[in-house]
């Protein structure tokens, strides 16, 4: 977890501790506050010591129980401040995939130009429904999410309407490993590769492939999306990072441009895809 994120969570914990100490009716022990809230005593300690992230409901209950309901807007603003950067998959997917997809779709629809780097999977805006279903199902199994897979597949398909709107441009770089990753049956992957081949030459798409044999100047890892000049969305196993400060956006743009130097386009990209497809048969 990033230092900035942990520091912000620690600062929120310190503020919660301060409210417990300064309760208008007298200082509360952690156990006394837990009893007021109907919580286990360990939860108070975890929140104050940044070992657990509070929910908005936790913060409202804490403010009320310490006699300071007026500070709830401050507390929830602190929470929103650091959760806007690191969004835990478990928390984001608590209500299934649909709300998470809706949030990203809204940001994409605000954007006219997108830069993508993917090292292990075909980007969502280029996925066939069957390929998307297998990718989403794998994540659902890993994270223990039981609902919303089909809704997510449909939402991802509708999101691709963005590609056909005038003035939009999707600039994608994909490592060859993403073309070969059999996260789905070979027949599904073949159809997905055919879809990629057909997208080469679209007015709204620039697709570059970084072959295994190409020399690279940086490690081809850490997939990310850059939405215009305002936002980077990157994924890790535990969370999705939304980075909106100028320095981070500039760094990811530099990384994307560096990776692009190793990519092939047009007919050369079609040849790489074709070579992979032949290894799959069909």
Folded structure, characterized:
By secondary structure, this protein is an alpha/beta fold. It folds into two domains: 3-83, Orthogonal Bundle (434 Repressor (Amino-terminal Domain)); 88-280, Endonuclease, Chain A (2-Layer Sandwich). Helix content is 53%, strand content 13%. The protein has helices at 3-21, 30-37, 41-48, 56-65, 72-83, 89-92, 97-109, 129-143, 149-159, 176-180, 186-199, 246-260, 266-280, and strands at 86-88, 113-118, 169-175, 205-210, 224-227, 231-235, 239-243. It has a seven-stranded mixed sheet with strand order 1-7-6-5-2-3-4. A hairpin with a 3-residue loop joins strand 5 and strand 6.
| Cα Rg | 23 Å
What overall geometry do the principal axes of the alpha carbons give?
A: elongated
The total strand number stands at: 7
Largest sheet: 7 strands, mixed
Q: Could you tell me the mean pLDDT?
A: 89
The CATH architecture of the largest domain: 2-Layer Sandwich
Number of domains: 2
**Approximate strand percentage:** 5-15%
Task: Please give a handful of descriptors for the protein shown.
single chain, 282 residues, alpha/beta, 434 Repressor (Amino-terminal Domain), Endonuclease, Chain A, 2 domains, 7-stranded mixed beta sheet, 13 helices, 53% helix
